[in-house]
């Protein structure tokens, strides 16, 4: 890339010979109208360039079955480069040929037969938005030395990955499949973690060409600058330890991404710390488990915006694709926003999982349906608006047998967790945002973990659970969908509150879009949200209002019947309760205010107040204020 007369065609031809990869000159693909316009001395605008860039993108795409291609194109703006690399889903290396205006003007003067007049050179310089990534080469050098520099750059590792656990090695394989040259590092722990990176290159054919290291300095030095390094290690102190070890070897402008489930406040501190030594830091939420990491996760990067531009092509290449083929990744926002939204994703994940657990419990034990029958109902539900990844895996679980036994029946009923659901509840509480269903899901895990006490209490109380009356499967599924709308409302409202509090500029629709594929909470409901959320309450959206008005009775019936029969359904109950409270114009909170004023003289506002005034009543004297 580069302005006119930078030498793109000459270098492209030579490079094609050196690398044995076909070369295409963008100039050859301009429609005649564009050539005529330029020849008449008028610069092209975005509209003129659109179709041309799209045809070059299609050309590049078509070459990906083989070795790819070398493409010469001015690619002056970031938006043009986005069109050029749109849906390539593959490694793209950018080389900017740049030179002085005078030098290029002189070159244009001696060049014959080109449609581009010299008068347009200034407009090209004016339009050029230099990329924050890629290789910059000064065209003063000979074409041969430019080609050598590009060949060296091309052959160097472009991406480093630290931590070759399940998620790390799957992401590395995903990157390698997109043609990214990798350096891999895993720590050396005698007797426990030895030659882990090397073993990964031997185990996975895609990683055969990757360089393996257990020496951090050698690992860092093997990577193109600015370096792009993905940390795929356990969240917590280990991240700080690795960053401390890395910093002495890093250079100004290198980019480090933390792809673990780190706490967003830690991410913010790390960003500051790394920023002080000139390293660009990103907190990157990655969702989709092992399968997702390998075939395409949803990726939620937040933090250093320039750092994001540098790693963007790589993240876009490895991310899942939405139904329109766009990558399920976007720059979330500044600070710890990437890890914050991943945390809330997990909080919603807990609630979605718990709703399914409650549904399963009531269908199997209250309504006495067999696992096969439940699986059948779920399979049908997967063809409806209730479709989701979690419903799909639940169906698979209900069909899985080990020998004659349903595998599920042999699993101890104590739910584990790694912290993100807990942090979501804490964050909701700190920000003053009700996330009652998400919190109920977390608490349900805690209650389940108290297995010994539950067994003891079951004997001591001996409460009978009864068969619930509800067996109307259609009604149960509407209750389930209603509760899910409330889960999504609470999750998105929490993110919105954080965005207001921390001054993050988040695009909620884009967030829903990147959660339509790759991540654990992908679902048809998320597809609907991707076309409807706009930063206002989901429960106030006319479509949701219409749905919940029509279906609240199903949720109510499900909660009343199962609760009366003695079955714990904390998430369904919390959803119904929240809906009742959220839609109540007059609440009993006036009594809370009166109590606060009585015992602590905290003051209250009157319904008739127009502005925020504070009133106090001497409550000991009746009827006097
Ligand atoms: C994901 C998952 C992933 C992980 C959870 C499990 O989005 O891919 O959420 O991050 O499986 O951390 O969390 P718990 O162990 O807390 O259930």
Would you write up a description of this structure?
This protein is an alpha/beta fold. The chain folds into four domains: 8-154, P-loop containing nucleotide triphosphate hydrolases (Rossmann fold), CATH 3.40.50; 156-335, 3-Layer(aba) Sandwich (Rossmann fold); 342-582, Orthogonal Bundle (N-(1-d-carboxylethyl)-l-norvaline Dehydrogenase, domain 2), CATH 1.10.1040; 588-625, 6-Phosphogluconate Dehydrogenase, domain 3 (Single alpha-helices involved in coiled-coils or other helix-helix interfaces, Up-down Bundle). Helices cover 52% and strands 8% of the residues. The protein contains 26 helices and 13 strands. It has helices at residues 8-19, 32-39, 46-62, 78-85, 101-110, 121-127, 143-155, 166-177, 196-203, 216-221, 237-246, 264-276, 289-295, 305-318, 337-366, 371-381, 389-399, 420-431, 436-449, 451-461, 473-502, 508-514, 524-530, 542-564, 570-582, 589-600; strands at residues 23-25, 70-72, 95-98, 135-138, 159-162, 182-185, 211-213, 228-231, 255-258, 280-287, 298-303, 401-402, 405-406. It has a seven-stranded mixed β-sheet with strand order 7-6-5-8-9-10-11, sandwiched between helices. A two-stranded parallel sheet has the order 1-2. Helix 11 links the parallel strand 8 (228-231) and strand 9. The longest helix is centred in the middle third of the chain and has 30 residues, at 337-366. The radius of gyration is 29 Å and the shape is globular. The mean pLDDT is 94. Residues 261, 287-289, 346, 349, 416-418, 420-421, 519-520 line the site of 6-phosphogluconic acid.
């Amino acid at each position: 890339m580069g302005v006119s007369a930078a030498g793109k065609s000459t270098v492209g031809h030579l490079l094609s010979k050196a690398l044995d990869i076909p070369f295409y000159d963008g100039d050859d693909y301009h429609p005649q109208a564009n050539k005529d316009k330029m020849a008449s001395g008028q610069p092209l605008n975005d509209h003129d360039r659109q179709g041309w860039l799209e045809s070059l993108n299609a050309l590049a795409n078509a070459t990906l079955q083989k070795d790819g291609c070398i493409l010469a194109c001015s690619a002056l703006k970031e938006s043009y480069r986005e069109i050029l690399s749109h849906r390539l889903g593959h490694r793209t290396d950018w080389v900017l040929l740049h030179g002085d205006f005078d030098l290029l003007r002189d070159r244009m003067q001696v060049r014959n037969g080109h449609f581009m007049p010299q008068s347009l050179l200034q407009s090209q310089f004016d339009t050029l938005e230099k990329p924050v990534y890629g290789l910059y080469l000064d065209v003063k050098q000979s074409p041969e030395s430019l080609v050598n520099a590009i060949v060296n750059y091309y052959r160097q590792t472009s991406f480093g990955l630290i931590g070759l656990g399940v998620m790390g090695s799957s992401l590395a394989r995903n990157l390698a499949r997109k043609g990214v040259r990798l350096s891999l590092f895993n720590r050396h722990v005698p007797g426990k973690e030895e030659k882990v990176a090397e073993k990964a290159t031997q185990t996975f054919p895609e990683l055969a060409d990757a360089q393996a290291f257990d020496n951090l300095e050698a690992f860092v030095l093997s990577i193109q600058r600015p370096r792009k390094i993905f940390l795929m290690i356990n969240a917590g102190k280990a991240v700080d330890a690795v960053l401390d070890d890395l910093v002495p070897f890093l250079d100004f402008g290198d980019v480090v991404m933390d792809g673990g489930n780190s706490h967003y406040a830690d991410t913010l501190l790390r960003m500051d710390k790394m920023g002080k030594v000139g390293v660009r830091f990103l907190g990157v939420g990655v969702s989709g488990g092992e399968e997702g990491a390998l075939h395409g996760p949803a990726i939620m990067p937040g933090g250093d915006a320039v750092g994001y531009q540098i790693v963007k092509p790589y993240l876009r290449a490895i991310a899942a694709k939405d139904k329109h083929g766009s990558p399920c990744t976007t720059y979330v926002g500044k600070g710890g926003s990437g890890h914050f939204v991943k945390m809330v994703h997990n909080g919603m994940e807990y609630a979605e999982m718990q709703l399914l657990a409650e549904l399963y419990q009531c269908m199997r034990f209250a309504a006495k349906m067999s696992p096969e029958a439940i699986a059948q109902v779920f399979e049908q539900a997967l063809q409806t608006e209730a479709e989701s990844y979690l419903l799909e895996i639940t169906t698979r679980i209900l069909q899985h047998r080990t020998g004659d036994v349903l595998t599920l029946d042999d699993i101890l009923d104590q739910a584990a967790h790694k912290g993100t659901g807990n942090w979501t509840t804490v964050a909701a509480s700190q920000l003053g945002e009700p996330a009652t269903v998400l919190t109920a899901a977390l608490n349900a895990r805690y209650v389940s973990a108290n297995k010994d006490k539950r067994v003891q209490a079951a004997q001591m109380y001996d409460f009978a659970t009864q068969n619930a009356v509800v067996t109307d499967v259609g009604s149960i599924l509407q209750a389930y969908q209603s509760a899910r709308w409330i889960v999504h409302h609470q999750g998105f409202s929490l993110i919105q509150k954080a965005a207001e509090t921390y001054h993050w500029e988040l695009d909620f629709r884009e967030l829903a879009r990147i959660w339509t594929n790759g991540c654990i909470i992908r679902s048809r409901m998320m597809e609907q949200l991707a076309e409807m959320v706009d930063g206002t309450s989901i429960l106030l959206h006319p479509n949701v209002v219409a749905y919940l008005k029509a279906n609240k009775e199903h949720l109510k019936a499900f909660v009343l019947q199962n609760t009366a029969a003695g079955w714990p359904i904390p998430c369904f109950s919390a959803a119904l309760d929240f809906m009742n409270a959220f839609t109540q114009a007059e609440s009993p909170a006036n009594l809370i205010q009166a109590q606060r004023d009585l015992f602590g003289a905290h003051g209250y506002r009157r319904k008739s107040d127009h502005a925020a005034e504070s009133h106090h009543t001497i409550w000991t004297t009746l009827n006097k204020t």
